[in-house]
Amino acid sequence: MGKLKALDENLNLTNKRIILRVDLNVPMKEGKVTDKSRINKIIPIIKEFTYKKAKVILVSHLGRPGGKIDEKLSLKPIAPILESLLNSKIYFSKDSYGPAAIEKSNKIKSGEILLLENIRFNVAEETNEENFAKELAKVGDIYINEAFSCSHRAHASVCEITKHIDSYAGKLLLEEVNSINILTNAAEKPVSCIIGGSKISTKIGILTNLVKKMQTIVIVGAMANNFIKHKGYNIGKSLYEKNQENLLKDIIKKCETNNCKLVIPEDVIVAKNYESEGELKFLNNIDDTDLILDIGESTVKKIYNIIDESKTILWNGPAGYFELDKFSAGTNKIAKKIAEKTKNKSLTSIAGGGDTVAAINKSSYSDNFTYISTAGGAFLEFLEGKILPGIKVLEINE
Ligand code: 3PG
Ligand code: MG
């Protein structure tokens, strides 16, 4: 990977309109943000630019509206959160490009902040369309990518825009790229990874690659249900992804060929629904009305042993439905164990993924991890040495 273009610290930014591509794709429930990690992370960056008297134009997506306006995915509810964290007014533009957005970007005063509506309300964002990117570029004078977590997407506000405006890699993005690079290049063996969460199809694909680099892969969370089902157990009403049989077989085979131990839960916490209490069950006792919502004690013990034997751990994806305290024990215990081992310097720990970060924060062990990335897909793809399109366009001599 080539060196990335960074903004000259001494550049006079007074009155310059900076398009700051951030990732405000935060977890929400009933219109409320449930984890502010991604927002908190960019606050110092925004402050720095307002302090330097620039005009900050925030561009982000939220969710996957599929190129259509979807009020439930409006970025508007994020504005008051930014206001309170920045102690500064946030102007909002429901147009994310075009004359109205340009006018607003010019109208705000130096040191002020404008938040543009969800960029994915425009179909041309995800198709990386040239004309759209050109128009979007007119909203600013300088473009900065501070959204490492979106840099695996060849989307207009990440890629094509850089061809039409003076563009740079932001400080956080550089820090993130450097940290993951150092950690992966110097990874001490045995390396294990714990993969969980519910974005099954996106992660199963990446597992195929991880198999070659890891000594052990532990599968937890909803995606483990696929493996449990594949082993012939009843998973009741649990979440799982259909038609993944061939992929599963392939992963299992690749693990064997690459001498990578594949570990799946051997006991789980089930409930009849989200309201009822959890019950510990071994896999052969799960019945048709059960929902798997966390890992069980024996599985936790097994994971503890793996963490004890590892020198480097990658963790992506919670072990259960951690949003509800009663199903967060597995995730918390993993966080605690990794944090302790990292603190006593016997482990290098890298965690990433929006949900993982939310889970670690909730468990209050976040300070002890070696590095925590707020990126999900981008984090894993980068770990695999894939070239992220949004990073590639920021390389010097591209
Ligand atoms: C993420 O949350 O992983 C990033 O914001 C990218 O979102 P996406 O997976 O919907 O492209
Ligand atoms: Mg994603």
Explain this structure:
Strands 5-6-4-1-7-8 form a six-stranded parallel sheet, sandwiched between helices. A six-stranded parallel sheet has the order 11-10-9-15-16-17, with helices on both faces. A three-stranded antiparallel sheet has the order 13-12-14. The protein has 14 helices and 17 strands. β16 (348-352), α12 (354-363) and β17 form a beta-alpha-beta unit. The mean pLDDT is 93. The protein has helices at 37-51, 78-86, 99-107, 123-126, 130-137, 171-185, 200-210, 222-230, 245-257, 297-309, 329-343, 354-363, 377-383, 389-392, and strands at 17-21, 28-29, 32-33, 55-59, 90-93, 113-116, 142-145, 166-169, 191-195, 216-219, 261-263, 267-271, 279-282, 291-295, 312-316, 348-352, 371-373. It is of the alpha/beta class and 398 residues long. It is 36% helix and 17% strand. 3-phosphoglyceric acid (3PG) binds next to loops.
